[in-house]
């Protein structure tokens, strides 16, 4: 490690990135150094602050975005579907983040969530089939199912 | 490189869709938190999230097993954000300063939204504003550490700066945050 000042070591100490012997030496240094005590306290506060405002992803963002990537990387005929799904994912994300969401009934919310679950399941099956080089006729059938689920999801979303 | 990383990398490089979905599941929350905080915009973060995944998937075959996969992922995410900043800056420059200020103001109020402010409370919005108001270089280090979970050596490598620079940016960020939150009963 290059030469580091005690205040730099303080940052590494807080992050748990000092080797044990250096961490022990730093702990001995701490009581006699107001600058490091102040920095350590500020670092702890910063970690707490960051944790308190941690932004949460909208439900389903990862699964839908991953599926869209996998589908988009497939043969040409499937690409428009990838875009449609990315769009559906975005619409869904906007719905989840929408403050108006609270105003909707529980029944409506449950409807959306079960539609989303169906789309995710369909997507999972499809991407597996594509990866395994499934028969195009079989894929078509499953695509129809997925499209129906996606349409239902979109209908629900457009009512929001 | 850790052993589980090594096995995951092998499957990812082979284009295994299940491994990719697993990777996305593992990093969905930290990646989104990083993008959302750095871009200061949830809608842009969702868009950037998809862009990062696409870039990761495309780059996987040529990924060289150096360092942690996590650091590599956040390097891609960081570059996607920088590209977006660059694009936004060019757009802003094309507006005259008055229009630009009005746009920034409307973006800022759209971001805060009255409902959200009321629901999240005073403390949350002050914390968010304090973090958003940090100097860019300090904010990057803070977010890469707190949300990305990278080591300072990885952060320095990603930003192309000496380790001591990354460390002092983190320390200044923390001290500055404390200063701007003084008097706040958390
Ligand atoms: Zn000291």
Beta-strand content estimate of chain A: under 5%
Q: Which series of helices and strands of chain A comes N to C?
A: HHHHHHH
Taking Cα atoms only, what radius of gyration of chain A do you get, to the nearest Å? 25 Å
Overall pLDDT score of chain A = 77
Q: What can be said about the biggest beta sheet of chain A?
A: none
The number of helical runs of chain A is 7
Helical coverage of chain B, percent range: over 70%
Annotation keywords:
heterodimer; A: 160 residues; mainly alpha; 2 domains; 7 helices; B: 186 residues; Rna Polymerase Sigma Factor, Chain: A; Arc Repressor Mutant, subunit A; 81% helix; binds zinc ion
Would you write up a description of this structure?
The complex is a heterodimer of chains A (160) and B (186). Chain A folds into 2 domains: 6-52, no CATH class; 61-159, no CATH class. Chain A is elongated, with a radius of gyration of 25 Å. In chain A, 74% of the residues lie in helices and 0% in strands. The termini of chain A are far apart. In chain A, α4 (61-72) packs antiparallel against α5 (79-97), α4 (61-72) runs parallel beside α6 and α5 (79-97) packs parallel to α7 (136-158). Chain A is mainly alpha-helical and 160 residues long. With 186 residues, chain B is mainly α. In chain B, 81% of the residues lie in helices and 0% in strands. Chain B contains 9 helices and no strands. Chain B has helices at residues 3-13, 17-39, 42-59, 69-94, 97-112, 114-132, 136-146, 152-159, 163-180. In chain B, α8 crosses α9 (163-180). Chain B is globular. Classes of the chains: A mainly alpha (160), B mainly alpha (186). At the A-B interface, α1, α3, α4, α5 and α6 of A face α2, α3, α6, α7 and α9 of B. The structure holds zinc ion. Zinc ion is lined by residues 6-7, 29, 33, 35-36 of chain A.
How are the SSEs ordered, and which strands pair?
The complex is a heterodimer of chains A (160) and B (186).
Chain A: H1 6-14, H2 20-29, H3 34-52, H4 61-72, H5 79-97, H6 106-131, H7 136-158
Helix pairs in contact in A: 1-3, 4-5, 4-6, 5-7, 6-7
Chain B: H1 3-13, H2 17-39, H3 42-59, H4 69-94, H5 97-112, H6 114-132, H7 136-146, H8 152-159, H9 163-180
Helix pairs in contact in B: 2-3, 2-4, 3-4, 7-9, 8-9
């Amino acid at each position: 490690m290059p030469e580091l000042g005690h205040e730099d070591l303080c940052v590494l100490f807080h992050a748990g990135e000092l080797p044990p012997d250096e961490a022990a030496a730093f702990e001995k240094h701490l009581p006699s150094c107001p600058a490091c005590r102040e920095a350590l306290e500020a670092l702890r506060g910063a970690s707490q602050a960051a944790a308190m405002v941690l932004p949460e992803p909208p439900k389903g963002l990862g699964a839908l975005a991953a599926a869209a990537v996998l589908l988009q990387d497939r043969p040409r005929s499937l690409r428009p579907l990838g875009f449609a799904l990315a769009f559906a994912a975005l619409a869904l994300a906007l719905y989840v983040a929408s403050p108006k969401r609270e105003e909707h009934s529980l029944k409506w919310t449950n409807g959306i969530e079960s539609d989303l679950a169906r789309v995710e399941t369909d997507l999972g099956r499809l991407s597996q089939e594509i990866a395994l080089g499934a028969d195009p006729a079989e894929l078509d059938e499953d695509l129809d199912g997925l499209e129906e689920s996606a349409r239902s999801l979109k209908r629900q979303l457009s009512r929001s | 490189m850790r052993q589980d990383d090594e096995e995951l990398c092998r499957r990812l490089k082979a284009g295994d869709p299940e491994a990719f979905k697993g990777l996305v599941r593992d990093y969905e929350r930290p990646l989104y938190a990083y993008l959302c905080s750095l871009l200061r915009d949830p809608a842009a973060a969702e868009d950037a999230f998809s862009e990062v995944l696409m870039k990761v998937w495309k780059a996987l075959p040529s990924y060289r097993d150096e360092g942690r996969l996590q650091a590599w992922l956040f390097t891609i995410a960081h570059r996607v954000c920088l590209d977006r900043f660059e694009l936004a800056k060019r757009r802003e420059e094309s507006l005259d300063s008055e229009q630009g200020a009005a746009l920034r103001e409307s973006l800022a109020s759209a971001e805060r939204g009255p409902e959200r402010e009321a629901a999240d409370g005073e403390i949350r919005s002050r914390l968010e504003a304090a973090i958003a108001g940090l100097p860019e270089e300090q904010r990057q280090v803070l977010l890469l550490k707190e949300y990305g979970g990278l080591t300072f050596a990885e952060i320095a490598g990603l930003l192309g700066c000496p380790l001591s620079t990354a460390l002092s940016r983190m320390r200044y960020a923390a001290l500055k945050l404390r200063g701007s939150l003084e008097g706040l009963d958390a």
